[in-house]
Amino acid sequence: MSAWLDEVRWNGDGLIPAIAQEAATGQILMVAWMNREALELTAQEGHAVYWSRSRKRLWRKGEESGHRQKVLEIRLDCDEDVILLKVEQIGGIACHTGRHHCFFRVLRGDRWETVEPVLKSPESIYTA
Amino acid sequence: MSAWLDEVRWNGDGLIPAIAQEAATGQILMVAWMNREALELTAQEGHAVYWSRSRKRLWRKGEESGHRQKVLEIRLDCDEDVILLKVEQIGGIACHTGRHHCFFRVLRGDRWETVEPVLKSPESIYTA
User: What is the pTM of this model?
Assistant: First the structure.
């Protein structure tokens, strides 16, 4: 039943990085971590479940913000050590900074420039 | 000069994961690791340079296969712990298995199914 989970090469902490990619646009929304249970729940529930390294607990993406990720496809790479999720981002905001996605800084010359707008303030996301 | 490198949150091994995304298609080609020197060289040379954890040395992507990655953009995420490269994949093959990209397995039911063809055999890539 869970042989597919055994094929994943978990790191020393029992985790694997997971990339969430917006299915409709191809944009990379964010990268987070999963443990075995998070990946299994993601497959069962059809919405992204990660492992929060800072809070040391399962984290159903959007559980506070409402910005859940509906999972359309789960992929594994050649080394079995990275997961790729194709998702639909509910609310259009994946990043805790209130931006559409987390990769909002671009290297220009010798500095990182922020090139994506805040769509909703973090305060209003997390106190709603 | 290298203040931008100091803003990167290197992990305990001095590394950061880097996602290579094909600029033209949005496809995620692969994920590899960079140390500080690899990221600096990537920015300087305009082609992807990674850190090989298995060989414990810098690895200019394509140095053996010819499948270099021309880097069009370098991005950093909100937590400063993931790099995103927008690239042009020379030769159209990013994966060492001879496939266009590394995420060629999809979860269908309870097993990983390979859904992408081998474009060129690894033998012919690495002995050419």
Answer: 0.96
Which pLDDT value is given to residue B128? 52
Confidence of residue A75 (pLDDT cuts 50, 70, 90): very high
In a 3-state reduction of DSSP, which class is residue B48?
A: coil
In chain B, the residue whose alpha carbon lies closest to the alpha carbon of A2 is B110
Question: Which residues form the domain of A10?
Answer: 3-125
Per-position DSSP letters for A88-120, written without gaps between them = EEGGG--STTSSSSS--EEEETTEEEE-S--SS
Question: In chain A, how many domains are there?
Answer: 1
Q: Residue B2 has what pLDDT?
A: 87
Question: Does B29 score more than 90 pLDDT?
Answer: yes
Structural tokens at position B85: 């490269």
Q: Does A36 touch chain B (CB under 8 A)?
A: no
Whole-angstrom CA distances from B17 to A41, A43, B42, B115 are 25, 24, 14, 25
Q: What is the pLDDT of residue A1?
A: 65
- A102: which chain B residues are within 8 Å (Cβ-Cβ)? 77-79, 82
Q: Which residue of chain B has the CA closest to A103?
A: B77
CATH code of A22's domain: 3.10.20.810
Task: State how far the Cα of B1 lies from the Cα of A46, in Å rounded to an integer.
Answer: 45
